[in-house]
Inverse folding.
């Protein structure tokens, strides 16, 4: 594999770490991204987002000339597609980013290449890619009708904030449209992956990632539903879950203001779209979790009732602690709802990992980005939406006089 050129298409939270780790193992890697600022940053060895330990690996790979980035699609022996797969208003998958990447790859193909889809996708998306390529390039099929381009799916299974460790240590599921494709993909991941490499077909690999995240979503929905019940009954939900988890076969996750991130908040909908009549529990879990931001907003509104122009400190905008990833964050939705329901309130969002408000909040006249010191003292209400370490370590005397809504159970 060290004589192989790999093009990693999409230099985001998954693509860039994958490119850097491959290059650090001696593979020639070309990163491709449509964002010129991302390309420029990567070529300088600078990580354009927060991910511990990535910058050192990236800087070494760039300095040694094993990793470069560009906006134009090159020819490569292997293409790793790691672009976003959001969902559309009807909750079906938006495959436009994948299609755009494939369309850019197609003119570069000469036969014998391996296309690996890492983007989390609905079942049969890898097959969809193969059909798209064959329609555009029927000349790549052999005389016996067999395609000379190989296709595989290898879903990422890493946790933001621990990506550089988990890329190497986690087991990987590798599904090929053919056994040959799965074997070639396995050889690539074996360059850096110390976990077990599990081979299967592409559709099963696609479904495995969706099932993993749907399992967690259902568990979180159970915890979130418990939080609603406990509010009604006057019970501390975190104490209740802690007690229940002492049972040797019970492991309830923690409630929160909802579920965020590109995976758990999105992937279950791909299963629902694929089998809408059968995916009843998965759909119900999504509905519970999607409704939680509204419930949190209701609690904050009730807390400041009767105050003409309340000041509200909203702590955290990321979808999980100690990262800058805002994708599908329920915290952002809570702040949006508060701005809408309390037009005369001043909502001061505190997110230490970003320098500016996300687009959804920047246009709201009553929302501003502030520090803890600016937002918390004197606030009428403080809502903890993300349990960043910086918030937990702060002197809580600043909360005196404020009504506190702790959605994470961090200040119990």
């Amino acid at each position: 594999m060290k004589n192989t050129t790999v093009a990693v298409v999409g230099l985001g939270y998954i693509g860039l770490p994958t490119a850097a780790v491959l290059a650090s193992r001696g593979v020639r890697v070309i990163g491709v991204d449509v964002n010129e600022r991302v390309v420029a940053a990567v070529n300088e060895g600078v990580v354009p987002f927060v991910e511990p330990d990535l910058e050192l690996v990236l800087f070494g790979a760039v300095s040694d000339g094993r990793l470069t980035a560009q906006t134009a699609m090159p020819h490569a022996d292997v293409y790793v597609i790691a672009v976003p797969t959001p969902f559309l208003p009807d909750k079906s998958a938006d495959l436009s980013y994948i299609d755009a990447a494939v369309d850019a790859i197609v003119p570069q193909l000469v036969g014998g290449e391996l296309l690996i889809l890492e983007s989390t996708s609905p079942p049969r998306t890898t097959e969809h890619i193969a059909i798209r390529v064959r329609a555009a390039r029927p000349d790549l099929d052999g005389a016996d009708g067999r395609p000379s381009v190989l296709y595989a799916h290898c879903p990422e299974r890493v946790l933001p904030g621990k990506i550089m460790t988990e890329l190497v240590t986690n087991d990987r599921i590798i599904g090929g449209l053919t056994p040959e494709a799965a074997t070639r993909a396995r050889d690539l991941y074996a360059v850096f992956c110390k976990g077990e490499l599990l081979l299967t077909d592409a559709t099963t690999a696609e479904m495995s990632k969706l099932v993993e995240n749907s399992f967690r979503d259902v568990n979180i929905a159970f915890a979130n539903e418990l939080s609603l019940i406990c509010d009604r009954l006057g019970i501390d939900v975190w104490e209740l879950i802690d007690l229940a988890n002492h049972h040797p076969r019970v492991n309830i996750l923690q409630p929160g203001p909802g579920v965020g991130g590109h995976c758990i908040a999105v992937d279950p909908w791909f299963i629902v779209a694929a089998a809408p009549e059968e995916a009843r529990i998965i759909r119900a879990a999504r509905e519970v979790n999607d409704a939680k931001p509204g419930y949190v907003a209701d609690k904050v509104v009730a807390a400041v009732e009767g105050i003409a122009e309340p000041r509200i400190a909203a702590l955290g905008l990321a979808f999980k602690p100690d990262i800058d990833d805002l994708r599908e964050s329920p915290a952002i939705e809570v702040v949006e709802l508060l701005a809408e329901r309390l037009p005369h309130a001043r909502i001061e969002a505190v997110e230490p990992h970003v320098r500016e408000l996300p687009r959804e909040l920047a246009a709201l006249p009553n929302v501003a980005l502030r520090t803890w010191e600016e937002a918390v003292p004197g606030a009428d209400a403080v809502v903890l939406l993300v349990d960043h370490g910086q918030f937990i370590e702060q002197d809580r005397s600043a909360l005196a006089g404020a009504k506190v809504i702790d959605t994470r159970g961090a200040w119990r």
The longest strand covers residues 5-9. The chain is about 40% helix and 15% strand. The domain at 214-406 is CATH 3.40.50.720 (Rossmann fold).
